[in-house]
Amino acid sequence: MIGTDSHTVNAGGLGMIAIGVGGADACDVMAGLPWELKMPKLIGIKLTGKLSGWTSAKDVILKVAGILTVNGGTDKVIEYFGEGAVSLSCTGKGTICNMGAEVGATTSTFGYDASMSRYLSATGRADVAALADGIKEHLTGDADVYANPRNYFDEVHEINLSELEPHVNGPFTPDLATPISKLKEVAIANGWPLKIEAGLIGSCTNSSYEDISRAVSLAKQVAAKGLKSKAEFMINPGSEQIRYTIERDGFLDVFKQVGATVFTNACGPCIGMWDRVGAEKKEKNTIIHSFNRNFAKRADGNPNTYAFVASPELVAALAIAGDLTFNPLTDTLTNEKGEQVKLDEPTGFELPPKGFAVEDAGFQAPAADGSKVEVLVSPVSKRLQLLDPFAAWEGVDLKGLKLLIKAKGKCTTDHISMAGPWLKFRGHLDNISNNMLIGAVNAFNEKTDSVKNQLTGTYDSVPAVQRAYKAQAIGSIVVGDQNYGEGSSREHAAMEPRHLGVRAVLVKSFARIHETNLKKQGMLGLTFDNVADYDKIREDDVIDILGLTTFAPGVQLTLTLNHADGTSENIKVNHTYNAQQIEWFKAGGALNIIRASVKA
After folding, report:
1. Which conformational region is residue 257 in: left (phi greater than 0), alpha (psi within -120 to 50 degrees), or beta?
2. Which class would CATH give 398-599?
3. SS (H, E, C) 145-211
């Protein structure tokens, strides 16, 4: 299965090969065109032992993120296997696969087992479970694969779940992994704000019944042990079925008794949909959450919010303590009577003992006959806008491109196209383009949203400068660092530069989905042949891209850097375009080819 969200990979928890893609990829498939993927390498992660106590499935992927880093899984599929894998719940497996996107993995998956059968039956799919059970030997790896993994996987790691510690990852990147026993030491050494202001759980991952029930077992201890939660506590149910079921079972009442706020069934703060009081002051502070991503400014728009990722139960414990140095495995808390009390280990249920329940799951089926559907959009709408086709390639080398920005360091799709308040413009390409690259750090002045307009010599916001170039019919180029475009599959991060007249993106390396999204929009996604050439790019450069008239798979292109002092130099750049993708570039985008084929 392919899906238009980087968290499509969650379905690996049900033994699926589920891959996140850009919207244009999905459109192709829905139009009957094939979907292509560079053959990925395989990472095998053998899980031994069994989780217990404070450790949860979330800690598996937090540990893996620390091992692989944010790009260690790029162009790779991760498969988890072993006795430890079989011992995990189905939703625990989903949590692990979901966050596999944070190491750049194409997808993550588990072999089919009894936990998946139980989950399918509990969610009204007993017929699917029965079919899968009948062929289960074909839905997992052969015995020899798991007995001799190094003969089959390109890379193998082993994690003993019985010895695995709870982890806290962050701040500012999901792969900075710290075991709970070392957190106090590391936090103090790095000068991280130790007071925890808020704890948040839920969203697309870690809002399973198991997760919520384990967090509730800690929330119950607040009153039972005479404690008072020190930090704000917020819950985002992942679906209406989860919300309804945990309300029926009294979990929401327990959370409310400790002062928790229950948000809507949505991504919520994970993508910046959190109108956090005081965030505009940009004060240095710490929050902890069970979401997947903790990039700067992502949750609340404050660049000085230090966000840490942990399991729901650890988030609950640290929110109760309000202290980043607190280790619930060993430390005590002072209750309202002045007594020293220790939190009991979390407990929970894999599945609801009374079964799942919901009155209205919120699903709306598509029209039985879509041919009669007419899409009407007001021409004055600020939130919706019909797309116009992008222009086809002119048939010549691209010359005279202005350098728009040379981005330094981490540049995720959040930096390229922020979420939060901008999401209301997702249906209006021109309006949402006003957030293009406003989070990227300009290598020449170390500032965000401040780049030099080569036409005037003054500094302005990135979108404003690019609109000035577009008004003069001048193309531009964006230069970036390693793993450019990591994080969300947000297609706007490719569509906005295309819409505003950026012709090429040249980086040290790309995140997979973003590179494909650029190709789909008729953009040039290029990488330095020599990464040291990144340092040759100057602020006032005017750049020519040569070799496009003979653009071919595996053949390098040449960039001429025309410097402001009158000198120039050539550098070689690479690309991964195949023959079909080169046709997308020539046509001005994959959708133009689909449109032409439909008319034909």
Report:
1. alpha
2. alpha beta
3. HHHCHHHCCCEEEEEECCCCCCEEECCCCCCCEEEHHHHHHHHHHHCCCCEEEEEEEECCCCCCHHH
| Triad 405, 407, 411: Cα angle to 5° | 130
Domain 2-160 and domain 398-599, same fold? Reply is no
Structure tokens at 349: 């249920």
For the structural domain made of 2-160, what CATH number should be given?
Answer: 3.40.1060.10
- Supply 211's token pair: 């997760």
State the Rg of the chain over Cα: 25
Is the per-residue pLDDT at 174 higher than 80? yes
Do 264 and 229 touch, CB atoms closer than 8 A?
no
Three-class HEC string of 220-269: HHHHHCCCCCCCEEEEECCCHHHHHHHHHCCHHHHHHHCCCEECCCCCHH
* pLDDT for 597: 78
Position of tokens 């209006």?
428
**DSSP summary character for residue 532:** G
> What is the Cα–Cα distance from 440 to 411, expressed in whole angstroms?
6
| Mean pLDDT, rounded, for 46-61 | 98
Closest CA to 96 of 81, 109, 111: 109
Per-residue pLDDT tens for 510-552? 998 899 999 999 999 999 999 999 999 999 999 999 999 999 9
Whether 149 contacts 81, CB under 8 Å: yes
Q: Encoding tokens for residue 492? A: 């706007």
Determine which helix (DSSP H) or strand (DSSP E) holds 545, and give its type and residue range.
strand 542-546
Q: Closest by alpha carbon to 196, among 322, 331, 325?
A: 322
Question: What's the pTM value of the predicted model, to 2 decimals?
Answer: 0.85
d(CA 514, CA 227): 47
Q: Which two tokens stand for residue 564?
A: 């402001």
Amino acid symbol at 21: V
CATH class held by domain 167-338: alpha beta
Between strands 232-236 and 196-202, the pairing is: parallel
Per residue in 426-471, pLDDT tens? 999 999 999 999 999 999 999 999 999 999 999 999 999 999 999 9
Asked if 79 and 43 count as a contact pair (C-beta separation under 8 A), the reply is yes
Each domain of the chain, given as residue ranges in start order, spans 2-160, 167-338, 398-599
| CA separation for the pair 27, 64 (Å, rounded) | 33
Amino acid present at 57: A
By CB neighbour count within 10 A (0-12 exposed, 13-18 middle, 19+ buried), where does 457 fall? Answer: exposed
User: Minimal CA–CA distance to 108: which of 117, 123, 116, 97?
Assistant: 97
Give the mean pLDDT of the chain. Answer: 95
Measured CA distances, 582 to 496, 533, 561, 585, 590 (Å): 20, 25, 24, 5, 10
| pLDDT band for position 367 (cuts 50, 70, 90) | confident
Q: Is the pLDDT of residue 219 over 90?
A: yes
| DSSP secondary structure letters along 436-488 | BTTTSBBTTTS-BS-EE-TTTS-EE-HHHHHHHHHHTT--EEEE--TTBT-S-
